[in-house]
Amino acid sequence: MIELDVPSGRPARFATPAPGDPRLARLSLNQRTTQRWSVLEAVEGCVAAGIPSIGLWREQIAEYGLDRSCRAVARSGLRVSSVCRGGFLTGPAADHERAMSDNRRAIDEAAALGAGCLVMVVGGLPEGSRDLPGARRRVEERIAELTVYAAERNVQLAIEPMHPLFCADRGVISTLRQALDLAERFPSEQVGVVIDTFHVWWDPDLPELIARAAGRIAAFQVCDWITPFPADALLSRGMMGDGHIDFGSFSSLIQLAGYRGDIEVEIFNAEIWAAEPSSTVATLARRYIEHVLPA
Amino acid sequence: MIELDVPSGRPARFATPAPGDPRLARLSLNQRTTQRWSVLEAVEGCVAAGIPSIGLWREQIAEYGLDRSCRAVARSGLRVSSVCRGGFLTGPAADHERAMSDNRRAIDEAAALGAGCLVMVVGGLPEGSRDLPGARRRVEERIAELTVYAAERNVQLAIEPMHPLFCADRGVISTLRQALDLAERFPSEQVGVVIDTFHVWWDPDLPELIARAAGRIAAFQVCDWITPFPADALLSRGMMGDGHIDFGSFSSLIQLAGYRGDIEVEIFNAEIWAAEPSSTVATLARRYIEHVLPA
């Protein structure tokens, strides 16, 4: 049988790796890549494909239940590379307590699941505001406040720089430099950074910034930058190899920075979400080996 | 009569300034904002609205004819704040001579029109390439080569950092820092930078970078960043005041850097292009005074 890649429909260049293949030892499925799967289905999908780690999303955790999610993960033997996501900390003072309380719940969930980190998407400009420096200051203050709660529960907060495309509406931390400037105020076990190829691949200072991130890389997430840019900016990510990112160089930089943790495949893409999730998982395992796996 | 803003259809907050209004003294219409107008129509539209400067596009110059464009501009007394655009310099060696020849023609046109500068959109990754550092190196080499030709004709090349959104397909110079690093290798009368609010508003280092750009700002272009992000990324720009950019702070930084040149309104937006160009011009003149005009 010819294996076809999702979503391109092209014949696969590599055979799908079998469970136990040592090349999969660091691969993690971020659950959003297989959007239709529940926590249980995603866990079972990873086990079936020999993927040893998973990144879980709070919406799906809530749907399936936190306790049941913890039990499913424990039974499976999977690692939880991350919980996505906390953050959205830029709101006005009136929103402060609601946002902090939601983030404390996110920290509790990450702790219960034994997750490697809680990914923080810090939030964009508040409704009607054009005060970008002000929003950035609020992020700093609120991360500092949350760090106390997270440290008591041994949860590492992972600041995710978001592509400048999302500065207005999702994340005012736009570069790895900014994320590091913030993270470095805290012990590394308390605050790290997420390096997502989609968000930072364009940065001309990437080599020096990834080197600087040594010891601070809480999560490494991969997907491709594709063109033409899809109509829905939130679903504009591609399968590795379908776009413009040089994953080989990227993985080398991450490796040189000493990171040996999981590599999460996180793809927001309408075509991939429409595909059969197990086919998506087979494709991403092949593409991971072909493009991403550190040499 | 109630004046309505384009494209929002809301009543205008300011009366349309009359020709001769000193607040318009630095306003320039970038021709792409009134996409449907020919060079002649755009020139006449500026004169009618009391806008003393215009940024012209090569496609429209070619349609109307270079000589006729020069005569129309000369008769009108308008300044030509910029010609858009040269660049697209990242292609493979086989494309080198075609690209350079096209850029030399662009320089000739800018010289003939007495333009303040030639805007350079440097180009994205070549087809099939993922070598971003290589593409950036080619830009440097080819700008150096073009500078000789441009200097002989007294045309300033203006490097435009493009929003990282366009790194793959339009411009591998992604930050003002990169543009300055490149421009500063040359005398400032030969190579400057374009600061376009849309491309750089998100940059956390903006204040220090604009200060560093003092004496190098060849053009200042304005439009807004709007959300939700439009389906066509190339047409995703908004009328000033309809989005998230703090133009007041921006103009102050530019003013502090000593820039006293024209301020071009350049908006790529399907709704604005569908509107009656003279209404668009009236709106942008009002919005310029309301939001952009340096204090």
Describe the structure.
Two copies of one chain form a homodimer. Chain A has helices at residues 39-49, 58-64, 66-76, 96-112, 132-152, 176-183, 197-200, 206-212, 247-256, 270-274, 277-292; strands at 27-30, 53-57, 79-87, 118-121, 157-159, 191-196, 217-222, 224-225, 237-238, 263-265. Helix content of chain A is 40%, strand content 15%. The first copy, chain A, is built from eleven helices and ten strands. Chain A starts with 26 loop residues before the first strand and ends with a helix. In chain A, the strands form two sheets. The first copy, chain A, has an eight-stranded parallel β-barrel with strand order 1-2-3-4-5-6-7-10, surrounded by six helices. The first copy, chain A, has a two-stranded antiparallel ribbon with strand order 8-9. Chain A is α/β, with parallel strands linked by helices. In chain A, helix 1 (39-49) packs parallel to helix 3 and helix 4 crosses helix 5. Chain A is globular, with a radius of gyration of 18 Å. Chains A and B meet through loops of A and loops of B.
Structural class of chain A: alpha/beta
Largest interface, C-beta within 8 A: A-B, 30 and 30 residues
Terminal residue distance of chain A: 29 Å
Give the CA-based shape of chain A: globular
- Spatial strand arrangement across the major sheet of chain A: 1-2-3-4-5-6-7-10
The averaged pLDDT of chain A comes out at 97
Share in helix of chain A:
25-40%
What is the radius of gyration of chain A computed over CA atoms, rounded to a whole number of angstroms?
18 Å
| Sheet with most strands of chain A | 8 strands, parallel, barrel
Instruction: Tell me what portion of residues of chain A adopts beta-strand conformation.
Output: 5-15%
Low-confidence stretches of chain A: none
The helix tally of chain A amounts to 11
Oligomer: homodimer
Order of helices and strands of chain A: EHEHHEHEHEHEHHEEEHEHH
What's the total count of β strands of chain A? 10
